Please model this.
Amino acid sequence: MLDRTPPDAYDNGDRVPVIVLPGIWEPWRFMLPLAKVLHAEGHPIYPVPGLRLNGAPLDASAEKVAEALSEHDAPRVVLVAHSKGGLVGKQLMLHPKVGHRVAGLVALCSPFGGSTLSLPVLARTPLGLFSPANSALTALAAEQAVNAKIVSIGSSYDEMVPNGTHLEGAHNITLEMAGHFRPLVSPSAQQLVLQEVRRFDTSPDPGH
Model:
């Protein structure tokens, strides 16, 4: 059966809100295994249904997230992203109107330097974004002011991003597991994401 979890199912909590950003061709519910772990620890979860399957160009995707963020009154949020979602998240951090509201980005398996699997024949498709020579990707890479607020978590081997997920100036972590999708459902990777989200969380401890 198709998952029909409504977007507001996990929007309550007393910790810093988390906006979840899936990868390309992934619906927001693809992030549910990780979102549920974060919500159980008090983080409201804000998905962005307007991204649909996240196949739009980078700037258009970031604008959709900016619109969604504008609908929430939380002064600060943390972004938790998978794959292309990490690129969208960094683009959002550079947004002139809402970028300042992003406390940090925790990205899983995000190809900040593109993927060596990208082929020239894909250049005019949504997958063309992942070419290391793509103009939108290289422009994003040149913007390094926000990198210190990014945690890039990569697998020991990623079949979709074999060249790795290292981002200059970011906090880079390599998991002791392989796979592009496995970290989303791995308890140890989920706990690591939670730990890194907490580094950006300035909310007072509940009950204090």
User: Anything to note?
Assistant: Strands lie at 18-21, 45-46, 77-82, 102-108, 150-154, 171-174. The CA atoms of residues 128 and 178 lie 24 Å apart. The chain has one domain: 18-199.
